[in-house]
Amino acid sequence: MDANMQIVLPLIILQVILLVLAMFDLIRRDASRVRGGKKWPWALVIVFISTLGPVTYFFAGRKD
Amino acid sequence: MLSLRILECERITKSYGKNQVLQDVSFSIDGIGCVGFLGANGAGKTTTIRILTGLAAPTSGTVKVAGYDAVKDRNKVSREIGYVPQIPSFYNYMTATEWMHWVGTLYGLDKKTIHERTEELLHLCGIYEVKDRAVGGYSGGMKQRLAIAQALINQPKIIILDEPVSALDPMGRYDVLLLIEKLKQVMTVFMSTHILDDIERVADHIVIIRQGTVVLSSTMEDLRANHVEPVIEFTLDHQAGDLITMLENTPWVTEVNYNGGRYKVQSSDMQKAQAELPQIIIQSGSILSSYQVSAMTLEDIFLKVVNQS
Amino acid sequence: MTALPMIKKEFRELFTSYKILFIPLVFIALTITQPITMKMLPTLLENATGLPEGTVIEIPTPTAAEVLATAVSKFSTLGSFILIMIVMGSIAGERASGVASMVFVKPISRAKYYLAKAFTYYILTIVSMLIAMGVTAYYTEILFGDLSWLHVWTGTLMYIPNLLLVVTTTLCASSYFSSAVSAGGVSLVFNIVIFTVPPFLGTFLSMVSPDALTNASMAVLRGSALTEASVTAAPSLAGVFSLIAIFFFMGWYLLEKQEI
Questions:
Q1: Where are the beta strands (DSSP E) in chain B?
Q2: Which of B121, B252, C175, C241: disulfide with B269, CB 3.0–4.6 Å?
Q3: From B82, which residue of chain C is nearest by alpha-carbon distance?
Q4: Which residues in A have their CB inside 8 Å of a CB on B?
Q5: Cα C236 to the chain's mean position, in Å?
Q6: Subunits that touch chain A (at least 3 Cβ pairs < 8 angstroms)?
C-alpha cells in the first residue's frame, strides 16, 4: 500500500463507520421520522458527501 | 363517609403581560365523582388545568389540590393527581410497557407493583394488544388511552383530563366516556370539554367558565332543581272553547305556547299545575290525546346561565 | 435517589440515538485530521502544479507535541459547535413536543430533571473528548514520534472545563427558550463572545477567561513544565468554573420558574 494511503487510513475507516452508522439508522427509521418525509435524498447525502454527509443527517435529518 | 375537599380554587387570576386569561376562577369540589369543566374554546380551560397540575403558577389567588398548595407543594400534589393533556406525547422510542414502568419508577413504586398495575391498566384502557409496540407508531386514540393508563399508575385521588374525547372518533369517544364512568366510582375525575353532551352523560358536578371567569359551579342535582323549570306539553283530539285565553287567565300559569297542535305550558307552581291543568282542559270540553311533563334540557339551562351572566 | 430513573432514561437515549457512538467518532474525525494534514502537507505542496522546476520548499517538520496542541484547538470552533447542536434541544425539544408536561406532573422535581440532563451531557462530553484525544495522540505518536503522555492527559483534562461551559450555557438557553433552534442560536452567539472578547478587556478579565484556559492547555500539550503551567492556568480555571456554576444555577432557576 502507498505510504500516503497508510497515513490517511484512519480517516477512511472513520468515514466508513460514520457512513454505515448513518445508513443503518436511516434504514431502520420510519420515513415519517425523517426530515422531508423521504429517505432517498438522505441516502444520497450520506453516501456521496464524505464525513459531512453522515454528520448533517445525524443532526438535521432525524426527527423524534 | 367523610368527603375530602379535593379541589379548591380561590380567586385565581392569570395574566400573560397585558393579556388577562383568567380573571376570577373560584370553585371547590368535594369527594369522588365526575366534574365537567365546560367552556368555549379560549375560555381559559387549559390555563386553569395547567395551574391545577402545577405546570403554571397563578398570577394571584390560591389553588389547593388534595389539601396541598399547587404552587408551594408541587411535588406533593403530583403524588395525588393523574394528568392527561389534550395532546399526550411520550418518548417515542419507548413501548407502552416501558413508559408505564418508567413512570412507575418516578413514583418510587416497587417492580412487582408496577408490573401488576401496568398489566391491569393497559387491559382496562384497551391497549394491551399493542403494549410492546413503540409509542411513536401509535394513533391519536391509542396515545389518549395510554395517557389515561399512565395517569392512573399511582392510584391518584383525582385525575385531570383536558378535552379527553374531543379529538376521538365516535367509537373512541364512547369507550373513553365509559371508562370515565368506571373511574368516577373510585376517584374524582376532572374533565374539561366544550361539548355539552359529554357532561350530560357522565358529570355529577358542573363548572362553567366563560371569558376567564367561573360563572357557575354546581352539582348536576342542584342545577336541575334550581334552574329547571318543567314544562307541561299536551296535544288535543278535539278542541272546544278558547282554551288559550282560559289558561292565560289562570293565576299559576306563566306562559302558554301553541305551536303546530302542541301546547306548552310553564307554571310558577308545578304541583298546582299538575293537579289542576287536566281538569281545566276537560272542563273546557276538549279531549286530551297526549300529556307529559318534561324537563328543560341541559342545553336550555346552559344557554340561560351563560346569557344571564 | 429519585433522579436515577431520569438519568437512566437519558443514557438510554444516548444509545437509541447512537449519540454515544457518533459523538466520539465525530470528535476523533475532528482531531485526527490535524496530524494527517500536517504529515501530508509536504507531499501536497510537492504535487501542486505551477511551481518552477527545482524549487525547494523547506517546511520544518512540526514536533508531535506541537501537532497535538493544534489538534485540541479544534474543540474551540467545530467541536463547540457540535456540542451546541447536541445539547440545544435537550430541554427545549421536550417542552416543544409536550412530553415535558407529561413528566413534570410526576413527582420528579425540576431540579432532578435538570441535573440528570446536565450530568448525562457532561459525561458524554468528557468521555468523547478523552477518546478523541487519546486516539489522536496515539496516531500522532506513530506519525511524528514520541509524546509525553502525562502532558497529553493533563493538557486534555485542562481543556475539558471549556467544553463543559459550552454544554452548560446551551443547557441554560435550552431551559429558557421553547425552540431548540433559538436556544442553539443564542448559545452560539454567546459562546463566540465569551471565548473571543475577554482577551481584549484588560489583564484581569483575560487572565480568568476561557481563552486563557485554552492557551494554558495548549502550552501543556506542547510540553511546558507542569508546575509553571498550573500557575498560569489557575486563574482561568477558577474563572471558567465560576461561569459554569453561574449558568448552571441560572438554567436551573429558569426551568424552575418556567411555564410548561
A1: 5-16, 19-30, 33-38, 60-65, 68-69, 81-84, 158-162, 188-193, 205-210, 213-219, 231-238, 253-259, 262-267, 287-294
A2: B252
A3: C105
A4: 30, 33, 64
A5: 16
A6: B, C
- Residues of chain B with Cβ-Cβ distance to C4 below 8 Å are 105
Per-residue pLDDT tens digits for B219-245: 888 887 776 677 788 888 887 778 888
Beta bridge partners, B160, equal B83, B190
Q: Specify the 3-state DSSP secondary structure of B257.
A: strand
- At B202, the amino acid letter reads V
Q: How far is A34 from chain C (nearest CA, A)?
A: 13
C-alpha cell belonging to residue C134:
487519546
- Per-10-residue mean pLDDT of chain C, 260 residues long, equals 84 90 92 88 71 67 88 90 92 92 92 95 96 93 88 93 97 94 94 88 86 92 85 91 96 91
> Which CATH number applies to B228-308: 1.25.10.10, 3.30.70.100, 3.30.70.420, 2.40.400.10?
3.30.70.100
Minimal-distance CA residue of chain B relative to C15: B93
Return the residue of B nearest to A33 by Cα: B136
What's the CATH number of domain B5-218, 3.40.50.300, 3.40.50.280, 3.30.720.210, 3.50.50.60?
3.40.50.300
Residues in chain A with CB shorter than 8 Å from the CB of B93 are 64
Q: Are A64 and B137 an interchain contact pair (Cβ–Cβ within 8 Å)?
A: no
What residue segments make up the domains of chain B, in order of their start?
Answer: 5-218, 228-308
Neighboring chain C residues of A17 at a CB cutoff of 8 Å: 25
ipTM for the assembly? 0.84
C101 shares contact with chain B (CB less than 8 Å): yes
Percent helix / strand / coil, chain B, rounded to 5: 40, 30, 30
